[in-house]
Amino acid sequence: EVVTLSLLMYPVLRSLALQLHAAVTGGYVSGTHSIAFINCLNEQIAKDIARAIMDKKLAAYVTILPKSSALYFWKGELEESTEILLLVKTRTSKIGELSNYVRSIHPFEIPEIISLPIDQGNPLYLKWVEENVPRD
User: Where on the tree of life does the source sit, at the highest rank (predicted)?
Assistant: First the structure.
């Protein structure tokens, strides 16, 4: 029972330790923020999803990249299409909620929603991201 409680508390304790470290040192804790990649069929869908993400305050910034070519396997066949890519800057703690929400509104059966933690960056920009995405 104690082991289970310890394992359940680990993410909370780690998060508190990282926040304390950042507060004391004034430095950025690697991985506090993430960038999510979301593919969209066309520009209108991309804009609609980007606006919905922003309206829900699930990101501080969404970049809509222009049309690009894509190759992928779908149901055993090699497919080729065009897509618009969203780059979503947010708190890492919001990635689960962001993914669930996008899946609920995205027209694709299996939309690409992947994320990478931000290792380092402009401290002022990262602070701005934090200020514009509410905590959990």
Answer: Eukaryota
Specify the 3-state DSSP secondary structure of 20. helix
DSSP state of 59: -
* CA quadruple 66, 54, 37, 129: dihedral, nearest 10: 110
Residue 86 in contact with residue 37, Cβ under 8 Å? yes
Q: How far apart are the first and last CA of the chain?
A: 27
> 31-132 maps to which CATH number?
3.30.70.120
Mean pLDDT value of segment 3-17 = 60
> Model pTM greater than 0.85?
no
**61 DSSP 8-state letter:** E
Cα 15 to its chain centre, rounded Å, is 18
Residue-range domain boundaries for the chain: 1-30, 31-132
